[in-house]
Amino acid sequence: MKIIIEKNFEAMSETTKNILLGHMSQDKRVNLSITAGNTPVEVYKKMVEIVKDSPNYANVHYYNFDEIPVENQAEGVTITDLRKLYLTPANINEENIHPLTVENYADQDKRLAMDGGLDAMLIGLGGDGHFCGNMPTTTSFENLTYKIKVSGEEPWFVPDMMETGLEFVTMGPVSVMRVKHLILIVNGEKKAEMVKNVLQGPVTEEYPASVLQLHPNLTVILDEEAASKLDR
């Protein structure tokens, strides 16, 4: 595990952008899975300035690692957010976008293997210790890509759009551990305690992201606030 601690959100975003572009600049097909949400917003702004309409990055293919369907909407929450944050502003060719959905999730691991596997995955950390859609008490460290049904009794925060009975899909711990390079980004003091738990505590399904400690090529990028409770 390599931990990089930057002064602030801007600096950690710049570092993350540089690492991703390093992967994307290779002279071969590059398979990249990226996260939605607030943490990577500045990363994507920086990347759009470089990637948009550039033939140098036509080799990069994009995959989402989880998805929440929305009734009467063509695409789910994750890919919709990724389009808004990065894929559309960067003018990514539709042929290079490979959505994971509740319809095709059972084929995700086979599809990735046939495509050569994921070269890198950018992920965030939930305040409850989840990563991707791997939630406390609902995941097993033995899961490949799988489907979860919302019961209404979850011990973790359930967003309003995830009504009881809703099914969503995520790449499981086994699938994620197959990625060649994992990049975990976390910012803010409110996640400092969980950062310590998942990086320096025991590997436990209570905090699903703790399994990332076992990955042979994990890079963690934090701002000083998120790193404030780590044992240095």
TrEMBL record:
<dbReference type="Pfam" id="PF01182">
    <property type="entry name" value="Glucosamine_iso"/>
</dbReference>
<dbReference type="GO" id="GO:0004342">
    <property type="term" value="F:glucosamine-6-phosphate deaminase activity"/>
</dbReference>
<dbReference type="GO" id="GO:0006044">
    <property type="term" value="P:N-acetylglucosamine metabolic process"/>
</dbReference>
<dbReference type="InterPro" id="IPR006148">
    <property type="entry name" value="Glc/Gal-6P_isomerase"/>
</dbReference>
<dbReference type="InterPro" id="IPR052960">
    <property type="entry name" value="GlcN6P_deaminase-like"/>
</dbReference>
<dbReference type="InterPro" id="IPR037171">
    <property type="entry name" value="NagB/RpiA_transferase-like"/>
</dbReference>
<keyword id="KW-0119">Carbohydrate metabolism</keyword>
<feature type="domain" description="Glucosamine/galactosamine-6-phosphate isomerase">
    <location>
        <begin position="11"/>
        <end position="213"/>
    </location>
</feature>
<dbReference type="InterPro" id="IPR004547">
    <property type="entry name" value="Glucosamine6P_isomerase"/>
</dbReference>
<dbReference type="GO" id="GO:0005975">
    <property type="term" value="P:carbohydrate metabolic process"/>
</dbReference>
<protein>
    <recommendedName>
        <fullName>Glucosamine/galactosamine-6-phosphate isomerase domain-containing protein</fullName>
    </recommendedName>
</protein>
